[in-house]
Amino acid sequence: MFLAEDIDRLMEEKPYGLIESPGGDGKLYMFRNPCFEPEQIGSFKNYFRAEYYDWIINCVQYAVEEDRIEVNRSCSFMPDDQDIYMSEPELKYIHLYEFPDKLSDSKDAEARATILVDSGIAAKLTFSGQEGADSVYYHCSQWFRCSLYYNLLTNEVSRPQVKVYDPDENSKGRELTGEMCPIIHKSDLDNEASRILAKYYPEAVDNPQALKGEELARRLGLKIRYVDLGGSVHNRGRLYLRAQDVTVTGGGGDQMHLHVEPFTILISQYIRDDVKKREDAIIHECIHFIEHPCFYYFQKIHHEEMEFFASDGTMPVYHGDSTPIDQIERQDAQLTARVRMPRDYAKKIIAESLSRNQHVDMLTAYERAIRNLAYCCNISVDSAKIRMIELGYEKARGVLNYCNDGYAKNYSGAEDVDHRYVVSIEQLEREYDRNPNLRQLIESGAVVYVGGYLVRNRPESVRFENGRYRLTIAAQMNVAKHCIGFVVSRTGRHYAFDPDSFHKDHTKYSADVRMDEHQDLAGIMELDGAYQNMVEQPYSGFADLLIQYMKQSHMTIGNLVEDTGITENTIKNYRAGKTAPTLEYLISICVALGLSSRMSWRLLKAAHITFEPSDGEPYQSYCFILDVMAVDYSVDEVNKYLQNKHQLPLSYPQTA
Residue 398 gets which letter from DSSP? Predict the structure, then answer.
């Protein structure tokens, strides 16, 4: 609770103030100033229009009327000694561009703070001349282009170049937004990451490897210091582009002043030994130095208190309306991920990992590929998963979904592009309170919550094993058919920026969800009687049937191990009803036993696995194998058939 004198004091202070410890030990703690309201982030286009509009118009008018630049005339027969008058000028656009690359990456502050301003002016021209004794006037409209260089540090403006507008002429350099954020389209992010690597870390292009943040900073001319950033909200890293005194925490926990030289990165000493966080923070600040100096130098014009760029760890990707801080941080996060996981290097690691793990089921293979990419690039598993999806491996969406303090059961995630199937208890409770349709589903028993999924309560979707529900293989392979989908809801959150750093002042919230209402609720409600079938042991019937089919085929456990490559313990567990078979392994067993189509489908049904050709690949191929190939072909021959269709094998039989 703040007293009146506290409010008066806070009105004069910056976004973060200090308050004494309630324990009376004299220590000071940082807190958010509730009275601080930061100004808006400035737009250079608005600034330039307000400050230089008249000057630009006068420059164009002088070039037309005094320098008499060549213009496109609609009246070509006008005499050369005619007079030209410009009227009704209008500033149509302002485009901003970075300085040429050879200077934009320079460590010289003035070179990095120089931009090209390209403005378009439309005006009406009047030509006057003599035809005999008569004065004649002709009028036309004309567009002009006025280009100049602007130094954001000194506010110096170069002599403008005025010429007739040519729509086919493109300005050199990369375009900037009004707030000085480079415009990099999503399709160009990988190319920009490659450009950064080629310029500053070329060995990573010729010989793909994980980047070392300290080495990249050294090549950029940046110094790194490890300090205790204390209670600052920016507790991982800061990039300083000018010399200044900053406040850090000393050895005794007291605050102390530290002089920071220009082009210095401060990194929290607490992440120095955490390779993933340290590398991410350093490379994050290096990308700011490469991509966003113009943003910093322009904002300094209006926000003198702006001190540094900051790194607070992984930034979520927001959709819809966003501030310029969102833009530069999202752009930085995307480029940092691509620099740490270059496209060609990441694809090579993923392909090699999937190739090594062809003997396991698809979901396990994808999980191992993600973990291997994370290990090779010194990054988090979540970052590796996102990168894998970006590179076209859509099925990775269903792997390693963190929920309720653990990872949910993997599923074939290609269908998860527009929906979310893994939801936490907290998210589900909030949607339960506000959505009567969801309450009706849950209270009727038509659905059951299983390890992060809201699953349709029927035998082919969930099984009851050892006192708990589990997803069936069929549900894992087609989650959209068996589980309730949700869509992300991002309502009711407001974010501001901290002008001390021009960094996002945000609180991390897990994205909220709402139930997808286009799932045939009436059909789901008809399933409420399925619960009674779930309390029985679902695999006892499968185990008995498997033993029966093995006897009929005169197949021993050893023979089945040799023909399928499935381990002996796994087959014994299947026969004892202790574990559920994976879909691929079960089809491999059907092929090894030489079962007819009818017998194969009966065995799958006993394991509560159902699918049909209309479900698409790989189910169409699996149906063909069970209906046509199982009787007369070996597992090895079936695997070659799947390989020709670019699909993973069922299992790996032992070969001599």
Answer: G
Q: Please list, in sequence order, all residues whose beta carbon lies within 8 angstroms of the beta carbon of residue 316, skipping any fewer than 6 positions away.
A: 508, 511
Helices 583-593, 597-606: axis angle to 10 degrees equals 140
- Residue 430: φ, ψ to 5°: -65, -40
Q: Which of 51, 69, 49 is nearest to 60 (CA)?
A: 69
Dihedral angle over CA of 393, 397, 399, 404, nearest 10:
160
The mean per-residue pLDDT over the stretch 450-457 comes to: 88
CA distance 170 to 174: 11
The residue whose two tokens read 């208890």 is: 425
Q: Which residues contact 84 (CB under 8 A, 6 or more apart)?
A: 64, 65, 68, 71, 125, 126, 127
**Burial of 140: CB neighbours in 10 Å, binned 0-12, 13-18, 19+:** middle
Mode of pairing for the β-strands spanning 114-131 and 134-151: antiparallel
Q: Which two tokens stand for residue 360?
A: 């396991």
Residue 407, pLDDT score:
87
Structure tokens at 301: 């014009």
Q: What is the CA radius of gyration of the chain?
A: 33
Which pLDDT score is estimated for 38?
Answer: 46
Question: What is the structure's pLDDT at 529?
Answer: 40
CB 180 within 8 A of CB 294: yes
The 10s digit of each residue's pLDDT in 362-378 is 888 899 999 999 988 88
CA distance 500 to 540: 66
- Residue showing tokens 């170069």: 158
Which class for 206: exposed (0-12), middle (13-18), buried (19 or more C-beta within 10 A)?
A: exposed
Residue 632, burial from CB neighbour count under 10 angstroms (0-12, 13-18, 19+): exposed
Instruction: Report the percentage of the chain scoring pLDDT > 90.
Output: 11
Give pTM, 2 decimals: 0.66
Name the token pair of 280.
């991410």
Q: What is the 3-state secondary structure (H, E, C) of 471-523?
A: ECHHHHHCHHHHECCEEEECCCCCCEEECCCCEEECCCCCCEEEECCCCCHHH
pLDDT band at 535 (very low <50, low <70, confident <90, very high): very low
CB 591 within 8 A of CB 627: no
Q: Residues 148-153: what's their mean pLDDT? A: 88
Strands 161-164, 134-151: pairing kind: antiparallel
Task: Indicate the length of the chain as a whole number.
Answer: 656
CB 99 within 8 A of CB 149: yes
CB 43 within 8 A of CB 181: no
pLDDT digits (tens, 9 = 90+) for 504-531: 444 444 567 888 766 655 655 554 443 3
Closest to 297 (Cα-Cα) out of 471, 114, 443: 114
Q: Higher pLDDT residue, 642 or 316? A: 642
* Nearest-angstrom CA–CA distance, 109 and 297: 9
Q: Which of 152, 489, 177 is nearest to 327 (CA)?
A: 177
- Residue 329, both tokens: 């941080």
Sign of the Cα torsion 209, 210, 215, 219 reads positive
Q: What is the pLDDT of residues 583-625, one digit of tens each?
A: 899 999 999 998 888 888 888 888 878 787 777 788 888 988 9
- CA dist., res. 482 & res. 311, Å (int): 41
